[in-house]
Amino acid sequence: MRWGLIGASQIAAFSMIAALRSFAGDRVISVLSSDPARARDYAALHDIAHAFTDLDQMLADPALDAVYISTTNDRHFAQAMAAIRAGKHVLCEKPLAMSVADAVTMVRAAQEAGLVLATNHHLRNAGSHQAMRDLIRAGRIGEVQSIRVFHAVYLRPELQGWRIDNPAAGGGVVADIATHDADVVRFLLGESPVDLVAMTSARALGKGVEDNAMSIWQMPSGVQVFCHVSFTHPHAGTGLEIHGTEGSIIARNVMTQRPGGTVDLHRGGQVEEVSFGERNLYAHGIGMFRDAVAGQGRPAADGADGVRSLAVAQAMLEAGRTGQRVTVDYGGI
Asked: Are 51 and 59 in contact (CB under 8 A)?
């Protein structure tokens, strides 16, 4: 496959370019940035043949098969729609859009065009998360009663920028991190939250956006989920606790981009260390995307998954603003 990067981003530089190139014969042939100098420098640094500042010119290239979008959140919708109109498959960073309605429009447009639209929810590609889902499905902890997700980190200075001070661009910890947590919970349980309560705050980094949020979600099965996300916790670590009627799964350091961490099964007074394969989360997701383009299976997280994680995040923000319990609106998806 021949890929174009919409956004000369750090995540593309640090993680995605290598993942895209990890498949024999696949190439990254173009990159787009609104800054001409950045586009040229980024292309030169990463050995990319073409640098663009005009999206239509980039998409007009008949050699281009698919695009990876990693611009600010407010740009995702227009850029994805342009790519779909140009007949390109789309892998988009989360959240898919600034509203559920726009995200649903993206999904419908891709379906009508016969194109693959996927959301880059990398965590569900982790061996640790797939091992936890297998334990749940096998009944090893009985009936699930509750989940605690703690995803409180310190946002590195080089990643701060618009994420901590620009609500118009989609900044804030809920859009950046809670969307991932919503997808993880959905992946583990196979169901989506019905409603939730939340509190948000700006404690240290947030300037016009929240940098800390705590929420409780009600699932259709009755499972309750507690979720804590933050940009301001340098020592908290990340993880999941999944508690059932016959046991618990305790996972540590599994909510990161690195394919590691630990998963322990607590059952009958014993603790069993759960083994799982470690792999590049992004490359695994790219492999599933490529298969979907070839008509073999579906992406790791498709557009509908992206709609649902965005819907949970939007409900969290509304609950934080109003102090009310909010029903999650999935826009008909």
From this structure: no
Q: Are residues 37 and 135 in the same domain?
A: no
Is the model's pLDDT at 123 over the cut of 90?
Answer: yes
**pLDDT value of residue 213:** 98
Burial of 270 from C-beta contacts in 10 A (0-12 / 13-18 / 19+): exposed
Tell me how far CA of residue 117 lies from CA of 78, 108, 171, 234, 320, in angstroms: 14, 10, 23, 34, 30
Give the CA dihedral 191, 263, 301, 50, nearest 10 degrees: 160
Give me the number of domains the chain comprises: 2
* Domain's final residue, options 90, 119, 148: 119
Report d(CA 228, CA 237) in Å as an integer.
Answer: 11
> Could you report how far apart the first and last alpha carbons of the chain are, in Å?
29
* Domain assignment present for 298: no
Contact criterion met (CB below 8 Å) for 20 and 68: yes
| pLDDT value of residue 151 | 95
- Residue ranges making up the domain that contains 105: 2-119
Q: What is the pTM of this model?
A: 0.96
CA distance 177 to 160: 13
Q: Is residue 35 part of a domain?
A: yes
Q: Can you tell me the mean pLDDT for 58-85?
A: 98
| 162 lies in the same domain as 276 | yes
Contact 315, 326 (CB under 8 A): yes
Are residues 172 and 245 both part of a single domain? yes
Q: How far apart are alpha carbons 188 and 140 in whole angstroms?
A: 14
User: At residue 332, does pLDDT exceed 90?
Assistant: yes
How does pLDDT run across 226-268, given as a tens digit for each residue? 999 999 999 999 999 999 999 999 999 999 888 789 999 999 9
**In-domain check, residue 297:** no
